[in-house]
Amino acid sequence: MELEILLKEYTKLLEEIEIMKKDDSVVKYCCLQEKREALYEQLRTIYIQKKLQEYNSCNHLWVEMPGEEHSPIYVNAVGCIKCGIDTGLRKRKKKLEDMSLEEQAIMEYSKVGINRSLDFIDVVCDLNLGRAIFNKINEQYPGLDNRTLAQYFVTALNDIRGIEVNEERQKSRAKRLGLSKDFKSWK
Q1: Which residue intervals of the chain are DSSP H helices?
Q2: Which of 10, 24, 81, 109 could join 134 in a cystine, given CB atoms 3.0 to 4.6 angstroms apart?
Protein backbone atom coordinates (compact mmCIF):
# COMPACT_ATOMS: atom_id res chain seq x y z
CA MET A 1 0.00 0.00 0.00
CA GLU A 2 2.69 2.47 1.00
CA LEU A 3 4.72 1.55 -2.09
CA GLU A 4 1.74 2.32 -4.37
CA ILE A 5 1.26 5.73 -2.76
CA LEU A 6 4.94 6.57 -3.17
CA LEU A 7 4.91 5.41 -6.82
CA LYS A 8 1.88 7.61 -7.56
CA GLU A 9 3.57 10.61 -5.93
CA TYR A 10 6.76 9.93 -7.86
CA THR A 11 4.92 9.59 -11.18
CA LYS A 12 3.01 12.80 -10.52
CA LEU A 13 6.26 14.57 -9.72
CA LEU A 14 7.85 13.39 -12.98
CA GLU A 15 4.83 14.63 -14.94
CA GLU A 16 5.06 18.05 -13.29
CA ILE A 17 8.77 18.22 -14.11
CA GLU A 18 8.06 17.43 -17.76
CA ILE A 19 5.47 20.21 -17.89
CA MET A 20 7.92 22.68 -16.30
CA LYS A 21 10.64 21.77 -18.80
CA LYS A 22 8.48 23.41 -21.46
CA ASP A 23 8.37 26.71 -19.56
CA ASP A 24 11.12 29.04 -20.91
CA SER A 25 11.69 30.79 -17.59
CA VAL A 26 12.22 27.47 -15.79
CA VAL A 27 14.64 26.32 -18.50
CA LYS A 28 16.54 29.62 -18.22
CA TYR A 29 16.62 29.32 -14.43
CA CYS A 30 18.04 25.78 -14.65
CA CYS A 31 20.72 26.93 -17.10
CA LEU A 32 21.67 29.83 -14.86
CA GLN A 33 21.87 27.51 -11.85
CA GLU A 34 24.23 25.19 -13.74
CA LYS A 35 26.42 28.14 -14.77
CA ARG A 36 26.42 29.48 -11.22
CA GLU A 37 27.50 26.12 -9.83
CA ALA A 38 30.28 25.79 -12.44
CA LEU A 39 31.54 29.32 -11.72
CA TYR A 40 31.43 28.73 -7.98
CA GLU A 41 33.50 25.57 -8.37
CA GLN A 42 36.08 27.49 -10.45
CA LEU A 43 36.19 30.28 -7.86
CA ARG A 44 36.49 27.74 -5.05
CA THR A 45 39.39 25.98 -6.77
CA ILE A 46 41.28 29.22 -7.50
CA TYR A 47 40.67 30.58 -3.99
CA ILE A 48 41.88 27.38 -2.32
CA GLN A 49 44.98 27.28 -4.56
CA LYS A 50 45.75 30.89 -3.64
CA LYS A 51 45.31 30.21 0.07
CA LEU A 52 47.45 27.07 -0.12
CA GLN A 53 50.23 29.13 -1.71
CA GLU A 54 49.87 31.68 1.10
CA TYR A 55 49.97 28.97 3.78
CA ASN A 56 52.94 27.23 2.18
CA SER A 57 54.91 30.47 1.96
CA CYS A 58 54.12 31.50 5.55
CA ASN A 59 56.93 31.19 8.07
CA HIS A 60 54.40 30.01 10.66
CA LEU A 61 54.46 31.14 14.27
CA TRP A 62 52.15 28.88 16.27
CA VAL A 63 50.25 29.47 19.51
CA GLU A 64 48.15 26.97 21.39
CA MET A 65 44.49 27.85 21.37
CA PRO A 66 42.26 27.51 24.44
CA GLY A 67 39.91 24.56 24.53
CA GLU A 68 36.20 25.02 24.78
CA GLU A 69 34.82 23.85 28.07
CA HIS A 70 33.19 20.40 27.86
CA SER A 71 34.23 20.06 24.22
CA PRO A 72 37.09 18.12 22.65
CA ILE A 73 37.09 20.40 19.59
CA TYR A 74 40.23 22.34 20.42
CA VAL A 75 42.22 19.68 22.24
CA ASN A 76 45.86 20.20 21.20
CA ALA A 77 44.84 22.70 18.54
CA VAL A 78 47.25 25.39 17.45
CA GLY A 79 46.91 28.39 15.20
CA CYS A 80 49.37 30.51 13.25
CA ILE A 81 49.27 34.16 14.31
CA LYS A 82 50.67 35.18 10.92
CA CYS A 83 48.33 33.54 8.43
CA GLY A 84 45.47 32.38 10.67
CA ILE A 85 45.54 28.62 10.13
CA ASP A 86 43.43 27.00 12.83
CA THR A 87 44.29 23.32 13.26
CA GLY A 88 41.25 22.86 15.50
CA LEU A 89 39.16 23.10 12.37
CA ARG A 90 40.09 19.50 11.54
CA LYS A 91 38.43 18.32 14.73
CA ARG A 92 35.12 20.02 14.01
CA LYS A 93 32.65 17.68 12.42
CA LYS A 94 31.41 20.00 9.68
CA LYS A 95 30.35 18.92 6.23
CA LEU A 96 32.36 20.40 3.37
CA GLU A 97 29.33 22.22 1.97
CA ASP A 98 28.76 23.91 5.35
CA MET A 99 32.30 25.32 5.47
CA SER A 100 33.40 28.71 4.25
CA LEU A 101 36.02 28.82 1.50
CA GLU A 102 38.58 29.81 4.12
CA GLU A 103 37.75 26.74 6.20
CA GLN A 104 37.91 24.52 3.12
CA ALA A 105 41.38 25.86 2.30
CA ILE A 106 42.57 25.21 5.85
CA MET A 107 41.18 21.67 5.70
CA GLU A 108 43.00 21.08 2.42
CA TYR A 109 46.27 22.40 3.86
CA SER A 110 45.84 20.33 7.03
CA LYS A 111 45.67 17.11 4.99
CA VAL A 112 49.43 17.20 4.42
CA GLY A 113 50.07 17.66 8.11
CA ILE A 114 51.16 20.73 9.99
CA ASN A 115 54.63 20.82 11.50
CA ARG A 116 53.99 22.47 14.85
CA SER A 117 57.45 21.80 16.21
CA LEU A 118 59.19 24.55 14.24
CA ASP A 119 58.23 27.93 15.67
CA PHE A 120 55.90 27.50 18.59
CA ILE A 121 55.22 30.19 21.18
CA ASP A 122 54.53 28.43 24.45
CA VAL A 123 51.35 30.35 25.34
CA VAL A 124 47.65 29.63 25.22
CA CYS A 125 45.97 32.42 23.31
CA ASP A 126 42.80 33.05 21.37
CA LEU A 127 43.78 33.02 17.69
CA ASN A 128 41.92 36.26 16.94
CA LEU A 129 43.78 38.02 19.74
CA GLY A 130 47.07 36.50 18.61
CA ARG A 131 46.55 37.68 15.04
CA ALA A 132 45.57 41.16 16.22
CA ILE A 133 48.71 41.47 18.36
CA PHE A 134 50.85 40.14 15.50
CA ASN A 135 49.34 42.69 13.09
CA LYS A 136 50.10 45.57 15.48
CA ILE A 137 53.68 44.39 16.01
CA ASN A 138 54.15 43.86 12.28
CA GLU A 139 52.86 47.39 11.57
CA GLN A 140 55.47 48.88 13.93
CA TYR A 141 58.33 46.48 13.18
CA PRO A 142 57.89 44.83 9.78
CA GLY A 143 60.22 42.01 8.84
CA LEU A 144 61.10 40.74 12.31
CA ASP A 145 62.42 37.19 12.53
CA ASN A 146 60.21 34.68 14.33
CA ARG A 147 62.34 34.59 17.47
CA THR A 148 62.19 38.37 17.98
CA LEU A 149 58.56 38.47 16.96
CA ALA A 150 57.76 35.78 19.52
CA GLN A 151 59.48 37.81 22.25
CA TYR A 152 57.55 40.96 21.33
CA PHE A 153 54.36 38.94 21.11
CA VAL A 154 54.73 37.37 24.56
CA THR A 155 55.56 40.76 26.08
CA ALA A 156 52.52 42.40 24.48
CA LEU A 157 50.23 39.53 25.47
CA ASN A 158 51.48 39.57 29.07
CA ASP A 159 50.99 43.35 29.20
CA ILE A 160 47.42 42.98 27.99
CA ARG A 161 46.68 40.17 30.42
CA GLY A 162 48.49 41.77 33.35
CA ILE A 163 46.57 45.02 33.36
CA GLU A 164 43.03 44.73 34.67
CA VAL A 165 40.71 47.19 32.97
CA ASN A 166 37.01 47.92 33.13
CA GLU A 167 34.61 46.80 30.42
CA GLU A 168 34.63 50.15 28.61
CA ARG A 169 38.42 50.06 28.42
CA GLN A 170 38.26 46.46 27.13
CA LYS A 171 35.98 47.60 24.31
CA SER A 172 38.41 50.40 23.47
CA ARG A 173 41.34 47.96 23.54
CA ALA A 174 39.46 45.53 21.29
CA LYS A 175 38.70 48.34 18.83
CA ARG A 176 42.35 49.44 18.69
CA LEU A 177 43.38 45.86 17.98
CA GLY A 178 40.74 45.46 15.28
CA LEU A 179 38.71 42.94 17.27
CA SER A 180 34.95 42.98 17.70
CA LYS A 181 33.74 45.22 20.51
CA ASP A 182 32.27 42.13 22.22
CA PHE A 183 35.62 40.34 22.34
CA LYS A 184 36.12 38.65 25.74
CA SER A 185 38.96 36.11 25.32
CA TRP A 186 41.74 38.17 26.85
CA LYS A 187 43.09 35.45 29.17
Answers
A1: 2-20, 24-57, 101-110, 127-140, 146-162, 167-177
A2: 81
Residue 53 — φ and ψ, nearest 5°?
-60, -45
- How does pLDDT run across 94-108, given as a tens digit for each residue? 677 777 888 888 877
- Is residue 77 within 8 A of residue 87, CB to CB? The reply is yes
125-155 pLDDT tens trace? 888 899 999 999 999 999 888 889 999 999 9
Predicted confidence (pLDDT) per residue in 63-81, tens digit: 888 765 545 444 567 888 9
> How many C-beta atoms surround the C-beta of residue 63 within 10 A?
26
For 20, other C-beta atoms within 10 Å of its C-beta total 13
Quick check: 53 and 68 in contact, CB under 8 A?
A: no
Tell me how far apart the alpha carbons of residues 174 and 183 are, in angstroms, rounded to a whole number: 7
What are residue 7's phi and psi, to 5 degrees? -65, -40
Stated pTM of the model: 0.68
What SS3 class is residue 91? helix
